[in-house]
Design brief:
The protein is 33% helix and 19% strand. α1 links the parallel β1 (2-4) and β2 (31-37). With 90 residues, it is an alpha/beta fold. The chain has helices at residues 14-27, 41-51, 75-79; strands spanning 2-4, 31-37, 58-64. 21% of the residues are buried.
Length: 90
């Protein structure tokens, strides 16, 4: 499962981390790839490690230096090495 954070990473707050964890939890997936901006990705990863620590779930964080909507964004190039594809393969 690929999950894209739909806000600039510099605008992420603790309430966003909780919402993200709730979204990931609701997916009932075995693994999730989170595409995240690089500004606060390490903080989000740390928060998710605590918020999702009770699950047997792999959460893979991969970065993008520009938002997915930007024509020069590198999110798609970073997705494949993280183990994902877009659109997701069924």
């Amino acid at each position: 499962m690929v999950y894209s954070v739909s806000r600039f990473s510099e605008d992420m707050s603790p309430s966003d981390w909780v919402s993200l964890a709730e979204d990931i939890r609701s997916l009932h997936a075995q693994s999730v790839i989170v595409v995240h901006g690089t500004d606060t990705m390490s903080w989000t990863a740390a928060a998710l490690s605590f918020l999702l620590g009770d699950l047997d779930l792999k959460v893979i964080m991969t970065g993008a230096s520009l938002p997915p909507e930007h024509p020069e964004s590198d999110w798609l190039e970073n997705l494949e090495p993280a183990g994902g594809s877009y659109p997701p393969k069924s």
